[in-house]
């Protein structure tokens, strides 16, 4: 009661070379509360502990028998790890090779033990060499590069599928491709570009989640993948609004190319959300068989959101089509105005052309042209014809 408690730090933020301190009881209670110092020698170090591979923090702070379970503290007095093992050898003297469980992992284990009484399954990165049967089953003997669309399958207690994610930078030409498989209460991800590891790391930083079942984690991950898509789609809508304003003011440049590029991206995104919706229907059957209420709620929310995104894509595509039609109508109107003007000019000067041609063909038979009054009379006649035509055109609103 009223005991001072240690504050946990964020082990994921540790950097190599950062100072750390270890507290424990090396070699027994006689040396209890011993403090040793060192630095972070390495992070995310995979170490085999009694046949189990653990990802640990490596430090050169002195650790000995009795330090296990003691805290590893950063320079701010925050617990960033739990001291676990020291590397030893029967043949060589080894110093400065101590390891600690990251605080983020330790906290997750503690919370799971308190809430469930046991550790829950943890998602792992699957590789072809370690699980060839799952790799062949998931990809049907193909490679990651042969995947071209999102899908999900369920057969004999194994749920597998693939993702083809259009990138935000270039949805048409750049994709993130990986596969997944749920077997024996474990979620495996299959990836050959290390993209999935980055996505999971981003998810861990941005989303608070509690790992319950592999299916629940998969659904949480799928929610994370589309979490910001509505804001991304709004950028297309805003860009189209800008083009519309430019079109109204007559300053739009390369309008057709811009709209064509956006429509290509929207077509890709529309197909993507449609495939995700189909995946949701497949996973719905799996969730119903498992009778997992939490997974069922998450899946319903996911499918609803995907359908909303699909509808939003269709709305923006319609907006782009309307804007393209508006641009064509404005261009056609300008062309009609030019045609009308040229037709009017041609019609107005047609009588003058006829008079000039008639005089030219009968020039030697018109002696009046050699007199001053005849030439002036001809010019006055042409001017009167032109004025009369302009008056008639104005009355008829033909200009």
First CA to last CA: what distance?
Answer: 96 Å
Total DSSP E strands: 11
Structural class: alpha+beta
Put simply, the count of helices is: 8
Provide a quick synopsis of the model.
The protein has 399 residues and is an alpha+beta fold. It has 8 helices and 11 strands. Residues 125-130 have low confidence and may be disordered.
Any overview of this molecule?
This protein has 399 residues and is α+β, with helices and mostly antiparallel strands. It has helices at residues 103-116, 132-139, 195-206, 214-225, 229-248, 255-290, 293-361, 372-395; strands at 19-24, 34-49, 52-59, 71-74, 79-86, 98-102, 124-126, 151-155, 158-166, 175-183, 186-190. The protein has a six-stranded antiparallel beta barrel. A hairpin with an 8-residue loop joins strand 9 and strand 10. Helix 4 (214-225) runs parallel beside helix 7.
SSE blueprint and pairings:
Elements: E1 19-24, E2 34-49, E3 52-59, E4 71-74, E5 79-86, E6 98-102, H1 103-116, E7 124-126, H2 132-139, E8 151-155, E9 158-166, E10 175-183, E11 186-190, H3 195-206, H4 214-225, H5 229-248, H6 255-290, H7 293-361, H8 372-395
Parallel strand pairs: 7-11
Antiparallel strand pairs: 1-2, 1-4, 2-3, 3-6, 4-5, 5-6, 8-9, 9-10, 10-11
Helix pairs in contact: 4-7, 5-7, 6-7, 7-8
């Amino acid at each position: 009661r009223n005991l001072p408690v240690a504050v946990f730090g964020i082990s994921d933020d540790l950097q190599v070379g950062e100072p750390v301190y270890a507290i424990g009881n090396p070699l027994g209670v006689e040396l209890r509360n011993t403090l040793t110092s060192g630095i972070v020698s390495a992070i995310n170090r995979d170490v085999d502990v009694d046949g189990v591979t653990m990802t640990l923090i490596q430090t050169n702070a002195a650790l000995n028998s009795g330090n296990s379970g003691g805290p590893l503290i950063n320079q701010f007095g925050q617990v960033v790890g739990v001291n676990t093992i020291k590397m030893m050898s029967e043949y060589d003297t080894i110093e400065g090779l101590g390891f600690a469980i990251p605080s983020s992992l330790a906290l997750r284990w503690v919370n799971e033990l308190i809430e469930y009484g046991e550790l829950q399954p943890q998602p792992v990165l699957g590789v072809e060499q370690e699980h060839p049967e799952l790799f062949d089953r998931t990809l049907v003997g193909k490679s990651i590069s042969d995947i071209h669309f999102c899908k999900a399958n369920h057969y004999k207690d194994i749920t597998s599928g693939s993702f083809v994610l259009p990138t935000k930078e270039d949805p048409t030409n750049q994709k993130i491709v990986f596969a997944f498989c749920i077997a024996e209460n474990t979620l495996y991800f299959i990836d050959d570009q290390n993209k999935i590891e980055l996505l999971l790391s981003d998810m861990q930083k941005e989303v608070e989640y509690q790992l319950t079942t592999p299916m629940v984690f998969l659904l949480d991950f799928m929610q994370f993948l589309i979490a910001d898509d509505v804001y991304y789609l709004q950028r297309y809508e805003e860009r189209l609004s800008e083009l519309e304003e430019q079109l109204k003011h007559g300053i739009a440049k390369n309008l057709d190319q811009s709209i064509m590029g956006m429509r290509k991206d929207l077509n890709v995104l529309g197909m993507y959300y449609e495939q995700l919706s189909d995946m949701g229907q497949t996973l719905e059957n799996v969730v119903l068989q498992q009778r997992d209420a939490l997974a069922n709620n998450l899946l319903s929310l996911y499918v609803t959101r995907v359908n909303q995104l699909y509808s939003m894509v269709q709305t923006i595509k319609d907006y782009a089509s309307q804007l393209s039609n508006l641009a064509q109508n404005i261009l056609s109107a300008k062309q009609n105005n030019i045609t009308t003007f040229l037709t009017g000019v041609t019609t107005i000067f047609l009588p003058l052309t006829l008079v000039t041609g008639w005089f030219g063909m009968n020039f030697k038979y018109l002696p009046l042209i050699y007199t001053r009054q005849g030439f002036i009379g001809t010019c006055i006649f042409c001017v009167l014809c032109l004025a009369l035509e302009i008056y008639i055109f104005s009355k008829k609103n033909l200009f």
